[in-house]
Amino acid sequence: METTQAVSTLSALAQPSRLAAFRLLVEAGPAGMAAGTIGEKLELPPATLSFHLAGLTRAGLAQSRQEGRFVIYTANFAHMNSLVAFLTENCCGGASCAPAACQPSTQGAQDEKTSRSRRRA
Questions:
Q1: Under a CB-based contact definition with an 8 Å cutoff, are residues 81 and 35 in contact?
Q2: pTM of the prediction?
Q3: Can you tell me whether residue 31 is helix, strand or coil?
Q4: Which pLDDT belongs to residue 26?
Q5: Nearest C-alpha neighbor of 83 from the set 30, 28, 12, 27
Q6: CA–CA gap between residue 46 and residue 35 (Å, rounded)
Q7: b (16+ CB within 10 A) / e for 41-64
Q8: What is the C-alpha to C-alpha distance for residues 76 and 5, in angstroms, rounded to an integer?
């Protein structure tokens, strides 16, 4: 994935309704989800939903297909994985990451607990 394509893809996800719709599509898996169901779950009117789904489709994050009178949307997992690969390409300086190196640190949480107890004392 090229930088400009990554920026376009991230821009499409940088809106709460589009991010929520994409997460629903990822959760639905390859079977996808009808546009009406997405709208109901997100409580979006049809015109607004259509706008957001079109944005995801233009960015390559979603695909649609007609099934009878329903439009079914699916996440484009290949594009999603390509974005994740682009974002993690140089993880850990290009070296293979050990699982512990990729885990978030709990030190900040520990420092916060210590700080709270000192305030109470």
A1: no
A2: 0.74
A3: helix
A4: 96
A5: 12
A6: 9
A7: ebebeeeebeebbebbeebbbbbe
A8: 14
| Residue 23: φ, ψ to 5° | -65, -35
Closest CA to 56 of 79, 31, 22, 106: 22
Measured CA to CA, the distance from residue 42 to residue 34 in angstroms comes to 13
**Residue pointed to by tokens 């109901």:** 40
Question: What are the DSSP calls for 39-69, one per residue?
Answer: HHHHT--HHHHHHHHHHHHHTTSEEEEEETT
Q: How far is the CA of 111 from the CAs of 8, 98, 105, 115, 117, in angstroms?
A: 38, 24, 11, 6, 10
Instruction: Note the pLDDT tens digit of each residue in 76-97.
Output: 999 999 999 999 888 887 666 6
